Amino acid sequence: MLTLIHAWRNLWRNGRRTAINASAIAVSTAVLIFTFALLDGSMRAMERNATELAVGEAQVHAPGWLAERSIYQAIEAPERVLEAAAGLGAAAAARSMGFGLLSSGPRSAGVQIWGVDPGAEGRVGQLPQHLARGEWLPGEAAGRVVLGAGLARTLGAEPGAELVAVVQAADGSMGNVVLRVVGVLEGISEGMDRSVALVDRRDFDALFVAEGRVHEVVLSSQGKVEAGALAAAAREAAPGLDVRSWRELLPVMVNMLNIWTVARWMISLIFVVAAGLGVLNTMLMATFERTPELGLVRALGATPGRVVLDVATEALLLGAFSAGIGAALGVGVATWAQVHGIDLSGLGAGNLSIAGVTLETTWRAHLTPGAVVQPVIVTLGVTLLAALYPAVRASRLDPVQALGHV
Amino acid sequence: MNAVLKLAWRSLWRNRRRTLITLTSIALGLALTIFMASLGAGVYRQASEGAVRMQAGHLVVEHPEFRHDPSPAHALAATEVVAAARGLPGVETVRPLVVGQAVVATAAGSVGVGVMGVEPEAEIGASPFPERVVLGRYLEEGDVRGAVVGTALARRLKLEPGKKAVLTTTDARGEMTSELLKVVGVFQTGSEESDVFLVQVPIGLARRAWGLPEGAASQVGVILGDPDDLPGVAAALSGRVDPGVAAVRTWREAIPKVAAWIELDTRANRLLRVFVIFLVGSTILNTILMSVLERGREFAVCLALGTPPRMLRAQVLAETLLLAALGTMAGAALGAAVSGWVQAHGIDLSLFLSREEGASGVTVGGFMISPVLRCWLTPEQVGAHTLLVFGLTVGIGLYPTWRSTAVPVADLLRTR
Amino acid sequence: MRPLAALLFVLLASGLLPGPSWAGEGRSAREVLDRADDLFRGRSSHGRLTMKVKTANYAREMTLEAWSKGKDLSLVRILAPQKEKGTATLRSAENVWNWLPNVQRVVKVPSSLMGGSWMGSHFTHDDLVKQSRMADDFTYETTFEGARGGRDVVEVTLKPKPDAAVVWGKVVVVARGSDLLPVEIVYHDEDGALARTMVFSDFKDVGGRAVPVRWTVTPAGAPGESTEIVYHSLEFDVSLDDGFFSLQNLQR
């Protein structure tokens, strides 16, 4: 304790030097924390994009459906899947899937028709939030349809337009119905944009004579359960069904995320080097400048070990104090960026809305304990090393030499 | 002036360690900034080049209505456009394309696909498909009914090199037409869109299927040797094309999603680079402040010995300039060397890719990108960042310059 | 799918096969094919038929009324079941429209969906429209002639010409020796595997000509599946002007 008090006093004997050191450590810590939180945030946004849009965290299908997509390959007793999901604390949405023709006057397109539960979709993902125009399905069998943006363009159909759907129903008959477009979805995936039309499951049932067939159950725990674990639990609860996590469903996306993870490490490394350099050089210089002073201490009879211990204690104290300030600052800024986000549309002259494509331009940080602890460890470690090296050197010098050291 | 510089130089090396530490701060900081900028530029360049080459090209000449209604009726007589584009400097390849929707059928079933009619010899080296053939071969000059299909489509229709398929579509006059295809190769790009839905055929066959005359094309793609030539070539080409007949568009308009993604990520990267520069600046500031602090006594001695304050200031300023010049030169050299190495050798990240089936690549907005990260280093990047860090250092150095003559001489001389 | 179309559509559209006896000399492969193709040009027909479809997932039976004129025009209307009554298909050359009384709309079948099933049967829309002379797309030769299974038959094997837009590897047509009317058409894929079989039977005398009134399609690889068409009534040379095969009349 006495050592600590002594070290603290000693630190303020040269207040300006300590202040410079402290600011170097604090700034480095704060910038590292902020950057790490931003990088984590962008990672999370990518994962969320993958899962929250249409895929969910895991999906359940009848065996073989993913390869053939036949309307007859329905999930047996889908209720047990929904119940199992509820047991796991995950939201679930049942979808019925079929193929058909949508036509609007002379224009027509072959489409995938999804029969969805409009309320449940909002609980497993963000489909309802990605409406470029119009509204989401009303939640009743009212003959309404939501189209992908590319499909809407192909059909020349905007909200309010009427389309005719013609399908081969499950009983072999030619199912047909007039649907009114209520909304247009944008920015989900190329495939969905181009070829997906969403209707209420009850409308789907009537159109396809589907008798309640369910082809896909989407599961989402909103990130509470890891996707692989969620899939494993669902697999156990629904034996005989094909259960896959989004990582198995979107291998290309997983690759993309892996690459981005590595890129993030590289950026983190650049930052660690830049921040470490700041602390290292400032601290090194400060301690080297103290060589005469340390020589004096030696001359007054302190052992080399004592000198090194003193310097280390001072460095640790300074490091802890400054890193603490830096962490508080970093956490503050990161929290602000988590709540408000950074609007990237304000940076740079180019227009971000290129030919009508809109992207989420708000960059939100995501603060994790790791994003605070790692920078603090880095700066403390560098502080200590940068102090010890010159201290050890100074302690080994002949005191007289050290005293004369400029 | 020379004398001041000499003095400054000597003074710098009087405390070698201090000088070296300051130099390291400047040099490493600049090197990091250059590396980060060139790595970002490399990634975006790869992403956009990959996407551009899977589409028509950096520039696309097409019927003005084609973008809104990509029907074969909106084709253009392309012979002159192709000739005009081929004559422009900076143009690597000119690819006339006929694109359209069709159904491909075999005895195993039928699938709706996008068809790209190409000139095989223009594709090699220009588009990624020739390199992506995993079975059989790519189209060759002289193939009349040859076709290359994606792996997923091949699986669905039980196709392999040597097998045939029937392409059916509606031609420009609304008539249904059919053409026999003979599969010569199967490609795998890793892009789901291409592997499931794309068929490439010789352009002559596509013209026949859509009832287009000889020389007609839906799009004429222009691939540039250097994407930075885009504005110049675009302007030159626009001057040679009648705007009523054909529109010249850049890849940003053709694949806005990829362009927007790249623009957005470029900005994110720019923001991060600002943080790095901030860190670098604060490091330089701290080391210089520290030096000044430690040199207070030295300045006091000089002043006490009668050095004119102006002289002292000039010397300190010269020291800063020397430090900045040396540091940024070393930094620029180091940054360029590291970036250049990564540009030449690449950092192969395919280690981190899943080996699962269907996961053969990385895509952005449906377009494949390479898993080998490469920097893209330009003299502009190096120059701009070097100037920035030089300016930053000199700006920071003004404080000690002022400070050197403002020291309380008596106080400082008394201490110690 | 052209060979099927060439024969099948002639059947579907006109509901009959050639009548003149074609015995004796000159039973060449070419003649077997031309019988089916050529003799219907410019003829018109009207008939009622039942179509029974059996698949692994459903079985259905429909009663249809059909009109045709020449090779290019035909109209088929559903009489039963009640749910689909009034639904009609109009074909003019290679275009197909459906009239959907439920929604009171005419929908043209786009080329992208021509490969899809027609009315839930084992016929695709392509089967209905892809007319061409088999002799143009295939090289052919008589591969058997004489008694087989107790009857006199001629077997013609067709192989697609190198550039013909045909998915099949081989088509075998078996015709009756007496009048060269087809009794069986067997489709093989490119590897020679059986893809589907059409059988024509119950030859009846209609207006002085023999016509098979029952024909059955059996896809390979789907045991138990089939589509069977039986004509209950059939008449030829009815007077129908081209306006009958119009979109206006389709919506009647």
- Overall geometry of chain B: elongated
Q: So how many helices of chain B? A: 13
How many structural units, i.e. domains of chain C? 1
The number of E-state strands of chain B comes to 16
Structural notes for this entry:
Chain A has 406 residues and is of the alpha+beta class. Chain A folds into 2 domains: 2-49 and 254-404, no CATH class; 58-220, no CATH class. Chain A is built from 15 helices and 12 strands. Chain A has a 6-stranded mixed barrel with strand order 2-3-8-5-7-6, surrounded by 4 helices. In chain A, strands 11-12 form a two-stranded antiparallel sheet. In chain A, helix 2 packs antiparallel against helix 14. The longest helix of chain A has 41 residues, at 15-55. The radius of gyration of chain A is 31 Å and the shape is elongated. The model of chain A has no long low-confidence stretch (mean pLDDT 85). Chain B is an alpha+beta fold and 416 residues long. Chain B has 2 domains: 2-51 and 259-414, no CATH class; 56-254, no CATH class. Chain B has helices at 2-14, 16-54, 79-86, 120-123, 151-157, 192-197, 203-209, 230-240, 251-254, 256-304, 309-345, 379-404, 409-414, and strands at residues 59-62, 76-77, 91-106, 109-118, 133-136, 146-150, 164-170, 176-187, 198-202, 216-217, 219-224, 247-250, 347-348, 362-364, 367-369, 372-373. In chain B, a hairpin with a 5-residue loop joins strand 7 and strand 8. The two termini of chain B are 34 Å apart. Chain C has a single domain, classed as Lipoprotein localisation LolA/LolB/LppX (outer membrane lipoprotein receptor (LolB), chain A). Chain C is globular, with a radius of gyration of 18 Å. Chain C is mainly beta. In chain C, strands 6-5-4-3-2-1-13-12-11-10-9-8-7 form a 13-stranded antiparallel sheet. Chains in contact: A-B, A-C, B-C. Chains A and B meet through helix 2 and helix 11 of A and helix 2, helix 10 and strand 14 of B.
